[in-house]
Amino acid sequence: MTDTVVATGTLSDRELAPYIQHTLIKADLTLATMLAHARECVEWGFSAAMVPGSWVREVATELAGTGVVVASALDFPTVGVTTPLGKATEAAELVRRGAQQLDIGVQIGWLKSGRFDDFRDDIAGVVSAAGVPVKVMLELPLLTEAEREAAVELSIEAGAAYLKNASSGAVEIAHPASIRYLAQRATNGVLVKASGGIASALHVRALLDAGASLVGSSAGVDIVRGTSGSDSRSY
Question: Structure pTM?
């Protein structure tokens, strides 16, 4: 895992791998699929294998001693539906099974209702129970400017290790402006992870240049192979 912002101009597609958390989260996964995903992460040198909680133990066993981090997500893909106790309990269980990082959904509805202490304490409960780096998925496009500022401040107070722009491309195709926004406000060693529809080396470079330390993508292999196709978006 990298923990610094990188200037990407001289990096080849292959050299982007340590900044990518290779993601595979679907409903129909099998043991064979998960083990193949873990081996891909080792082969290409990705930062982490991001996998469903139900497969953490098996992936952790496969990746033991490789240096590839095992990561999983809580309160996802439907964000903000798990109780604080349920989320903290699951966080502790996933770490016991071998998770080394956790990405978590947050209670956007509580934030919008002015329940700031509850929003913060929900995150803090996971941080305390897990004892591993926690990344908070802030769903920036769903927030007003005042809510964004509050979400960042409260997440940092809660002990988040990373701020994320969104949980998936359904909320936001990760944009450098969102990453720059978070990077400019991250304090106390807090880092930024980009997520959402990241499918090309050009996109990865733009997000890293904007201030991300990590990106999450299910297209990791295509990105580092240089087979992800062209990206016509302007960054």
Answer: 0.92
